[in-house]
Amino acid sequence: MLSFVAQRVVKGVIVLLAIVVLNFFLIRLAPGDPAMVMAGEAGATDQVFVKQLREKFGLDKPLPEQLFIYVKGVVTLDLGFSFRQQAPVAKLIGERLPATLLLTLTAFAISLALGVLFGTFAARFAGTFLDTAITVFALIFYAMPIFWVALMGILLFSVTMDWLPSFGYETVGANLTGPAHALDVAKHLIMPAMTLGLFFMATYTRMTRASMLEVKRLDFVKTARAKGLSDAVIQRRHVLRNALLPVVTLAGVHSGTLIGGAVITETVFAWPGIGRLMYDALLQRDYNLLLGVFVICSAMVLIFNLITDLVYRLVDPRIEFAS
Amino acid sequence: MKQFWKSMLKSPSGVIGLVILLLAISVAVFGPMLFPNSPWRMVQRPFLPPFTLSTVPLGTDALGRDVFAGMIFGARVSLLVGLVSTLVALIVGVPIGAMAGYFGGKVDDALMRFTEFFQTIPSFALAIVLVAILQPSIYSIVASIAIVSWPPVARLVRGEVLSLRTREYVQAAVVTGQSNSWIILREILPNALSPVIVLASLMVATAILLESSLSFLGLGDPNLISWGYMVGAGRTVIRQAWWITVFPGVAILISVLGLNLIGEGLNDALNPRLSREGR
Amino acid sequence: MTAPATVAIKNLRIALPKSAERPYAVDGISLDLRAGKIVCVVGESGSGKSMCAHALMGLLPDTVDVTAGEIMFEGRDLLKLDDDGWRDLRGRRLAMIFQEPMTALNPLMRIGDQMAEMFEAHGLLTPRERRARALALAREVGLPDPERIVRAYPHQLSGGQRQRAMIAMALALEPAVLVADEPTTALDVTTQAQILKLIRNLQRNRNMAVMFITHDFGVVADIADQVVVLRHGKVVEEGPAATVFSAPQHDYTKALLAAVPSMDPPARAPLDDRARAVEVIGLDKTYVTSGGWFREDRRVDAARAVNFSILKGETLGLVGESGSGKSSVARLVMRLIEADRGTVRIGETDLTSLSGKALRAERHRIQMIFQDPFASLNPRRKIGHIIADGPIAAGVDTKVAFDRARDLLKMVGLDAGALERYPHEFSGGQRQRIGIARALALEPEIIVADEAVSALDVSVQAQVLRLLEDLKARLGLSMLFITHDLRVAAQICDRIAVMQRGAIVELTPTAQLFAAPEHAYTRELLAAVPGRKEQAPAA
Question: What Pfam families would the database entry show (chain C) (predicted)?
Fold first, then answer.
């Protein structure tokens, strides 16, 4: 198990380095002088700042050397400076990361729990009205763009009903502390997390349902019935456990989509995470910040993938021996 | 082929999906002919609510532009981007997957490392970065959607080819002296096609969602109106004018739903689960 | 005979869904199971034998319906039971073992836990006692190192061990009836022999009534007290095993028995002073599975210093159990996989030294017939193309190639109309004939037949074997015949090579191999062939 983790971590670091190199070339792909590009629209007019950038990244040196300087910078967690925000990129991201983690992990937990639950129900009552209803809802949620769900949520729960706050992480100026603060944050979290979770919930519902119906037809389920086990035990112990394996795989595959969805969700709800930061960078054409956020997003996906792989190994005894 | 249409028309999701798709395509193709007015032009007072004037059935936006006209022109962009980027992704992904699966060994290793690399990068974030750096235009949008969506194609095709390669009829083609390209094109790919077709229909749906999300963030082609752009533009005025965001969103929802349903119908028609057990 | 029946099945009729080929899977079957007796239900694929077994367990698929009949057990009609009633009986009074022990076990649960479930299902014992009983059961069915096995997962066991675990599970609650659905079909002969012995012993010790489903008359001969022959869902013959074998009444039974190849090899003319068609020298092939960065690589020897030659007009048999490397050798000879070392010579040509175009140009000289009639034909190509593609690739004119394809179809006993049809329109036996036609289309000197008749029902198997023999003689072909079935090998081979773990342990003329096997492994294989004591009467 340990060797597996080591192996995967090394692989992940290699991928991350490759992404950094990709970044380096992306900057040079953009029309115009890389220094100007990195400075962003606002900074490009400031000659002093552009000159600093040129020196820092050795932009008058040959390309391989530039690459080396750039990669070295990223490896030492120096992601550059955002002229627009007047702060180092790493610091900006560091401040925003917890909010994003809170949002994505909550959304992930909700979607997985509800998705598996609904999927199990649908499979259990396959062909009945309940199954059809769940399937149709899952199909619809699966087809809704996240930004639209967010806006419809605001329209319904903030504008019309006035139940939930429509933006932000906490009530501005309330200066709450302790449990009151936590409650306030939770209230702000509900809509963004549900919005982000809805699509994934639909995905997991569909996957769980399909997978359970598939597993139900396998021989060992017949064996379980031949033992005289009760239906509930068969469903839980034999069908569900096996059916969850592809769901775990899917969760890993979808981690990138989850981050992408967070960018949109945070943008609409003004949630102060790195997704919102990315949008701000986009608006201000602050490329250095944009690419910094991109690298961090990639790292998060890699870590999430590693975790799902580990979970898969824990659930499926066949992997360790068959590798 | 006849058999295929028969089973496709038997599955309710397939039929509903086909109807929706045909409708969307005809709107995209013929709609703009019926609405020669540019969707960018001011036609009425701003914030005209829907269902008040028959000439502007879905109301106007903050600049007095016709929401209905925008939706009709937007259909063109959404479908075009969806179809073309999927096509490009297939053109990239199928050969890569086929070569990796067929030749195996080092070729497979190299191609799959490359594919996995692209698959680990968060796709939407990469698309944002690519479009932002290349400057938003219909070409950069299609290119970046294609770049983030080919890896699943390559992996699927590779998996199929890998399992087909050991099939006895492929080995029979080898021992009867057929060339590699003949075997890949005649024996393997035709039999790997069904899951690729199913995936492609789902990819068009995903591409439409991606395009609308990019446009929503202001990364759409500035010269073309699209559903995502309309929702994005209406976002700030949602408290005054709900219709500007609601209707284009419904259009996205319905087209994506239609394509997903087609995917399900195709899956039922092309991969009948019982065919294997029937023997 | 007069002892009361433990289970009495009367006039059972099971309806198939409307789209099926025939209305009833099982059409008015009656049979009795008695304590201490094994009833073998025999039939070819589609005879309805498996449906019978599932009906007795209440495990029929949802797509079929029992429309008539009754199954009496301990004074009750099982067909009238509700779900709870079934649940109570299953496992406790009625138990079942299945054909494929790998898929019949839950891959995510430890063997011991799956055994313990048997007690749990019926609310018996404490968890601790259940574990102890599981261990005892593992020991009873002869699983090696039972302490380790109960903690293992199914994939860590061999096929035979898995089937033993299944049996242990089935016997846990001392059921009155055991239903065994082709329990040894997926196993090698030597393992099959052990499992059959185990079932026989346990059944005698516990005085169980056993319903044993099989397609293999050899197995029937070894294990049955009573035989029921099914065909198209109907009983065609029924009686004590000895009677059915010595004096079969129904024509179908007679035909089936006649189709079982005999263990007595027919006399064959010696094939001296002929030229060599194929020569295989020192073939080595090791499969290496990379264990990753931190684990040892896994190595499996598929071929170790394999040497043999086949004379012109000779059939060499290559026999062995699964994993012995016989199929790998076939593919090495065909150059479908590359050898680590060694030479394959066809006539004067060294096939192993060629590659690319030069190799393709020589391939027509040695052709292959494959095992699975359903996987060996491209489902999307018409039969005409399947046969003519090879010659066309070799430069034969298209029209000539199709004319020849027509002749070949006639030669293998199919009509020319087949040219325009797709593979799915043909039965397994017909497909295998098409595969033979494809191989012959290139006018080869040598045919490699890889388990070419193993997937076929016995009656079809006999026909295809006859066809192969006939064509071989007419066209003067040499043949490498790969099989796991010693009976088939006895009938068709001039010489036989026995393979074990990638090496040939014995290579002698067929008659000599059966009369006086030299190697211990050969003797073990011969002893394990089911139904040795009962020789099928000559038809």
Answer: ABC_tran (PF00005), oligo_HPY (PF08352)
